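ok so I'm stuck.
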Amino acid sequence: MEFCMLQEKVAAAFTAWRRKDMILAEELADVVLYASSIAEMVGLDLGREVQVKVDKNAARSD
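replied:
not stuck anymore, here's the structure
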């Protein structure tokens, strides 16, 4: 269910962005909250995983 809610919030954020709607920040915050909730449910440290991904992306040579 959390994944479905996350997908709904991503879609709402996209719509807000397309319409240049002031609620974009609120919708993006919801995306972060749902992603954090899913990570917590499965025992992941999302902050650590984000840092690992940032470091991995920085090391790429595009």
